[in-house]
Amino acid sequence: MDATDLARWQFGITTVYHFLFVPITIGLSAIVAGFHTAWVRTHNPEWLRLTRFFGKLFTINFALGLVTGLVQEFQFGMNWSSYSRFVGDIFGAPLAVEALLAFFLESTFLGLWIFGWGRIPERLHAATMWVVHVGTLLSAYFILSANSFMQNPVGFRFNAETGRAELTDFVAILLNKVQLVTFPHVILSAYLVGGAVVMGVALQLMRREWLRCSEIHDEDAGGAADVPMYRRAARLGAVVTLVAGMGVAASGDVQGKIMTEVQPMKMAAAEALYESVPAGEGAPFSVLTIGSLDGERARPLIEVPNLLSFLATGSFDGAVKGINELKAEYAQTYGTAGMAELADPSTGYVPNIPTTYWMFRLMIGLGMAASAVALVVLWATRRGRTPTGRWLLWLAVAAPVLPLLGNSAGWVFTEVGRQPWVVFGLMTTASGVSPGVSLGEVVTSMTVFTLLYGALAVVEVKLLLRTVRQGAAPFEQPVDPAEQDEDAPLAFAY
Prior knowledge:
By secondary structure, this protein is mostly helical. It has 16 helices and six strands. The protein is globular. Belongs to the cytochrome ubiquinol oxidase subunit 1 family.
């Protein structure tokens, strides 16, 4: 294992870790804004309690996500300076706009929301959380536009004298066809995660409150406590999860066809399809395969006829190019001069097949499982029912974990499936590593990041578990801004 391998591992670990916070932040910001709006419209105390409770979970997650995101950026200069130099002119614009506009927008208005209770009019106060949500969407859009350039480079020209890609059309970067299908897919998956977090937390608290009241009184007394509030939150979270899950499936279908158009090797690798399937035959999709996946001993156990052709082309008998044909095409198109990684006939232009194959299936399977959990919750809580079995605890744990892991699997598939390119067709991953970084230096930074992120994980989990155990605080009527003492010190809302 050399410095390149370790640099890739380090960037992969820190990126996946950071992205655990991102979908929760985007999804919960929308749901908390919805809860707050419901309180302003109805003045039902339950909505205010849910707003403050899930708002606190959102704030904890936002803070930890901010820290991990800042640390992640250090690697561009440390381990990937050649890559940064090559794409710096392209990435500079969208990432600068993300920092100066989107990030400051969400940070500023989150501060107004946290400290604005009783100080600004309630409608304006609720609007601040919607602005926070818009900020998270803008932040995601500009960051994804940079990633989409790596998948499908547009809006640039290559300067042979400097060896750099130079921006020629900023609008083309923002309207990259990969970006236009990736953004809704990522945002819908974030709503899926946010809904699942609300569903899982509310299920656990609903069961706890029912059992607590049942121990004190009789079973019917449980309905007089906070059980109806948590049941409502669980059902709302389940609805968001289910609707978002359907949106993820639909947007993912469109994204798969665009992916096949710009990166056909990634789709072939997702199925471990070594030999091309001509039009009229229809390529099957294997649900489960055993073997080495090297094209010789791979043996599909469960197949869905013609499904891969539909996923790739939109037609059940469409042609799908295989790995072997694409290797020959890429070798002719891009050449191998000066690129040792591509000159190797056994790996040139082909990503890691087992990783790509299984991450694609985990992404789909875990997303479907999360939607199935939402269906079970809606059925179990129908017509005011309150399930209290121990199986409910397992559902409460599985609800947020399944879509989070599905998101991570999706990003691993996206990035591993692009290999050996760091910018498709322009720069290989091996050539993007900092030339002066040694193996020992990467090991040192990787160790420091691992320890730091491990400590942050302990802090995050401890804060979240403590907040969940406390549950929603008792109702407290917000102070009317007109009655607020202007000289009173700012106080944290929770």
